[in-house]
Amino acid sequence: MAEVTATMVKDLREKTGAGMLDCKNALNEAKGDIETAVDLLRKKGLSKAAKKASNVAAEGLVGVIAHGHTAAVVEINSQTDFVARNPEFQDLVTKIVGLAPKADGKLEALAQSQFPGAGMDVEARIKALAGTIGENIVLRRTAALHVSPGVIASYVHNQIAPNLGKIGVLVALKSSGDATKLAALGRQIAMHVAGTPHPPLALKPEQIDSAITEREKAIFADQARQSGKPENIIAKMVEGRMRKFYEEVVLPQQPFIMDPEKTVDAVLKAAEKDVGAPIAIEGFVRYALGEGIQKEETDFAAEVAAAAKS
């Protein structure tokens, strides 16, 4: 019987996405043979899915799909980044993303869509793969954009497979101008949305969640009061700071990341002559993997060592 080492456990986990202890136990049962251990993990099936359902899933992939006037984005989470590199998981996400435009941003509709070639719906296929891999997998959210006339551009940051990565962006440009030039411009705007230091919240100040604006106003007012100024002056100071806040988070007002001397709106206006028609941003979506999820910090080296010793 071959000795089960930490390296073998790590290799099996990277190959299957299964948990550390599951890999260690499978290797012991397989007497150190990795391929046999892979088969043993796969045979565990759905029995693991329920056990893993309570575990935090903050890793995974964001996927996008864009075809002319319609586009969609989907986030599917796993517990570890290893799973994101698993070909089966990538195939799962790719096929679910392909179904997303028809679901039109409705998560329940997407979950109930028939998974291609599996004889089951998306939700059941996710549970089946969770059982095989041994980690919780979650269909977290989806959104869709439509525009006509015009184009929808997409961009994926930290791409690890076609249209799959850590940040997914869609930008819909409404215009009757040259579609090819619009698509190139849209991709630049999408790259801006992905990379700007202050991710945009809306296209107009009034579209920002009122809870966010009220919180900002309260913070600015408290800061201004520390100066000892009268309330009427404080109100003007808050107004000025809110204008600066809107410049940071309202997409058309933001300094364009590729040419900070211009705003995004100025870039659009300058492109209209080349495109041959007025251009307006109809909508945008930015999904960053795991945003808003409380992640558990882990020490991978310690986890490997603990699994090897147990």
Labels describing this entry:
13 helices, globular, Helicase, Ruva Protein, domain 3, four-stranded antiparallel β-sheet, 48% helix, three-stranded antiparallel β-sheet, Tetrahydropterin Synthase, Chain A, alpha+beta, 310 residues, single chain
Structural class: alpha+beta
CATH first level of the domain at 59-169: Alpha Beta
Beta-strand proportion: 15-25%
Helix content: 40-55%
- Give the N-terminus to C-terminus distance in angstroms: 17 Å
Uncertain regions: pLDDT < 50 for 5+ in a row? 45-54
Please count the beta strands (DSSP E, at least 2 residues each): 11
Can you put this structure into words, describing what you see?
With 310 residues, the protein is α+β, with helices and mostly antiparallel strands. Among the domains are: 6-54 and 296-309, Helicase, Ruva Protein, domain 3 (Orthogonal Bundle), CATH 1.10.8; 59-169, Tetrahydropterin Synthase, Chain A (2-Layer Sandwich). The chain is built from 13 helices and eleven strands. It has a four-stranded antiparallel β-sheet. It has a three-stranded antiparallel β-sheet with strand order 6-8-11, with helices on one face. Strands 3-4 form a two-stranded antiparallel sheet. α1 packs across α2 (20-29), α1 packs across α3 (34-43) and α2 crosses α3 (34-43). The protein is globular. The model is unreliable at 45-54 (pLDDT under 50).
